[in-house]
Design a protein that fits this description.
This is DUF397 domain-containing protein. This protein is an alpha+beta fold and about 70 residues long. The protein has one domain. It has one helix and four strands.
C-alpha cells in the first residue's frame, strides 16, 4: 500500500464552482500520483506511476481536442 499522507490534493479547474462529481489528483509526491473521489476524501485512492499518469493525461487531452 502506498503512503499518501503527504499528498496535496487538487481538483480540476474545470470542475465548476459547485465541485460536483470530481476527482482530485495529488502529484506532489516523487514516485506516485494519487487519484481519489472528491466526495469521499477519506475513501480509497488509486495510485499511478508518474509516467503512466502523464500518458493518461496526454491521451485524454488529445481525445478532447480532436
Amino acid at each position: 500500500m502506498t503512503d499518501l499522507a503527504g499528498a496535496t490534493w487538487r481538483k480540476s479547474t474545470r470542475s465548476g464552482r459547485s465541485g460536483g462529481n470530481c476527482v482530485e489528483v495529488a502529484d506532489n509526491l516523487p514516485d506516485v500520483v494519487g487519484v481519489r473521489d472528491s466526495k469521499d476524501p477519506t475513501g480509497p485512492a488509486l495510485t499511478f506511476a508518474p509516467a503512466t499518469w502523464a500518458a493518461f493525461v496526454s491521451g485524454v487531452t488529445v481525445q478532447r481536442q480532436g
